[in-house]
Amino acid sequence: MLFNSLEFLLFLPIVFLLYWFVFCRRRTQNLFVVAASYVFYGWWDWRFLILIAFTSLCSYLSGILLEKWEGNRRRQQAVSASNIVLNLFILAVFKYYNFFMENMAALFSSVGYELDWATLNIILPVGISFYTFQALSYTIDVYRHNIRATHDPVEFFAYISFFPQLVAGPIERATNLLPQFQRERRFDYAKAVDGCRQMLWGFLKKLVVADGCAAAANIIWSNYEVQPGIVLFIGALLFTFQIYGDFSGYSDIAIGCSRLFGFDLKRNFNYPYFSRNINDFWRRWHISLMTWFRDYIYFPLGGSRCSMAKSIRNTIIVFGVSGLWHGANWTFVAWGLYHAFLLAMFMLLGWNVKYTDDVAAGRALPSLKETGQMLSTFVLAVFGWILFRAETIGQAYEYIVRMLTPSAFTFSNVSGAGVLINCLVVIIIEWIQRSRQHAFDFSHVRSVFLRYAVYVATVVAIYFLMPQQKSEFIYFQF
To answer: What secondary structure letter does DSSP report for 163?
Structure first.
C-alpha cells in the first residue's frame, strides 16, 4: 500500500480510530498494530507476509535462546551467528542471487568456461532490506546485552512489522522502538498534531518535488545521448532533488504517522544539502542506515581508533557494503566507493572536520566560507547521484562526459527547469527551519492564522502542482 494512494487515505483514519477508541489497552493495541501492518504490507502481495513472519519468528526465538543460554558463550555465539546467517541468506537469495550468478558466469566465461546457471524468477519483497536489518539489530543487541530479550511475540512482531516505517525506514533499533510497545500509550493531542504537520510536509516533498522532478528527469535520462551539457546538468539536479524529496518525504510521513499512534521514531534526515563537507553529509543523510553500519560494522572493525590505513579500509568496507545494500548493480557499489574515496581523501588531507552545530547558527545567512562549503559538498553529491541513477557504470561515465562539454555553458529551453523553482522554495523553507526537527515544526509560531494559512497553502500547492502520474517511492526497491 502506497502512502500516496487512495487506499492509504482510507486505511489510516480507520486504523487510527480503531487503535485509540476500540483497542484501548496496550496488548490489544499491539495485536491490532500487527494485524493492520500485515494488511498494509500484504496489500502488494500476500506472499510477502510469509517471509516477514518467518524472519520475525526466527529473530524472536533467537532472543529467547540467547537469554536462556546466558553465561554459555559458545551457545550464544552459535545462536547469534545462525540467525544472522539465516537472515542474510534470505536477503541474498531474494535480492542478489541473479546478480551474483550473472557476474560469476561472466567471470568464468572470460577464461573460456561457460557456466550453466538458472535465473530465479522471484519478486523482490518490498522493504526486505529494511526489516532484515531491523531484525538483525535486535539479535545483535540482545547478544551484546544492550537490551533484554522480549518474551511477548505480539510486541516483537509489532516491532518488526510496524507499518509506518516497514517498507522504507527509518531502520529502527529495538533499544528505541521495542520499549514503546512494552508500555501503555495515551493519546497526546500535541504529538498527533505535530505528526500531521510532518506528514503534510512529507507529502509536499514527495508529490510536488520528487514526482515533479521525476517526470522531467526521466525524459532527460531517456535520451541523454542527444542532449546538450546544460540539459544534462539540469537532469542531474532534478534527480538530486527527486531522491531527496522522495526518501526524506517518505521518512517525514513515516515519522509523522507514527506520532499519531504515540510512537517516536528516530530522525532519518537532517537537512543534508546544507552540509559543510562530505562527512557532514553522511551524518545527515539516511541517518538510521549509516548509524546501523557504524555500530555493527565500522566500530567492530576498529572504526577510526586505529591507523589511518585501517580507518580508510574500514570506510571503504562500510560504503562498499552500503552501496550493495542499495541494489544489485555495480552502479550502486561504484556510488558507495565514490563516497568512500571522498571521505578517505578528506581524512588524508585533514579536512574531515566534524560539524555538530547547525550551519549559520543564530544567523539568517551563511558566511562566504559556509556558502562555498555547502555548494562544493552539494556538487560532489550531485556527481554521486549520477552514478546512483545510471543503469550501468558506462552510462554514468558517458553522461558525466557529455555534461562537462562546452555545451554546459549554453542556454537551452528545457522542459522541467521550472520544477527546480519548486525545489528552491522547499530548500528556502528548510533553511529557515533548519534548527527544527522538521520544516513544518511551527510550535514557536504563536499566530494560529499564520500556521493554518501555511497548511492551506500547502494543500493547494499539492493539488495544483503534483503531476497527474504518481510514482512509487524510490527506496521501495531496496
So the answer is: G
